[in-house]
Amino acid sequence: MTLAAALLSLAAFFTPAVFATAPLQLSEREQQIKDHIDARRDEQIDFSAALVNVNSGSRNVEGVRKVGEVLVPEFESLRFATRWIDLPAEMQRAPTLVAERKGASGKRLLLIGHLDTVFA
């Protein structure tokens, strides 16, 4: 699964329910996006499961890095440059994964998240 598909899936998943109360007419492009997401549902679930099933509590530096290593090839397949930024050792935290794709024009977009998982 590509990162783009995952991001589209998240966007679709978090769309407010209020928009679902009345049938919407999708544009041709929107329908293509929906079909793309629907066709990759199982792949998306498997990818999400692979991420959340890693023991990656906040102080589990190795586990958090492992989650990042799953994401790195996805970012790089979309031509993002990836790098790790180390934190001070006394923080006992994994480094921060940064994925960046520079362009010459257009709008900027910042996505931020976390790699650690808290098991219930």
TrEMBL record:
Keywords: Hydrolase, Signal
Signal peptide range in chain numbering: 1-20
Top-rank lineage group of the source organism: Bacteria
Cited SUPFAM superfamilies: Zn-dependent exopeptidases (SSF53187)
Organism: Burkholderia ubonensis
InterPro entries: ArgE/DapE_CS
Protein name: Peptidase M20
